[in-house]
Design brief:
single chain, Urease, subunit C, domain 1, 2 domains, five-stranded mixed β-sheet, two-stranded parallel ribbon
Length: 142
């Protein structure tokens, strides 16, 4: 079978009905769709594929989901760490309102771009962002 991408001999964590884990697994992908996930076999390094990746020492797993984030606030991580909850909510809400009004557009763009990079590097492929200006996040991730 010819595929676009084959990753062989990797630690493969699935999210199938049995949550299988292959200590040496092979994943085959065509047109962005996973075609096959199975234990690696001799010769998988020579599979007919546009790209073949030796996964030895690597983990292949489904993308992670961040179910609650504020992308545009990324540049401010740690800025409120010295405040108690009431102070943090008051200051954060005031800033969030200004972001929603279109102030600090450069900060919003930088925040969502940094968040996209950090999430992708960490394996997060899906986010639910509670932003005042969600179009910026959609553009950065797109």
């Amino acid at each position: 079978m010819a595929v676009d991408l084959a990753i062989h001999d990797a630690l493969v964590l699935t999210a199938d009905e049995r949550n299988r884990l292959y200590e040496r697994g092979t994943v085959c992908i065509t047109d962005g769709c996973i075609e096959e996930v199975r234990p690696s076999r001799a010769g998988d390094g020579e599979l007919e594929a546009f790209t073949v990746i030796d996964g030895n020492g690597k983990l292949v797993m489904p993308g992670l989901v961040n179910a609650h984030t504020h992308l545009e606030m990324t540049p401010l991580i740690g800025a409120f760490s010295e405040l108690d909850l009431t102070e943090m909510l008051g200051s954060g809400t005031a800033l969030f309102n200004r972001l929603g009004n279109g102030e600090f557009e450069y900060l919003v763009e930088a925040g969502v771009e940094l968040a996209a990079l950090n999430f992708l590097l960490g394996g997060v492929t899906t986010v639910n962002s509670m932003d005042a200006r969600p179009a910026a996040g959609a553009e950065a991730f797109g």
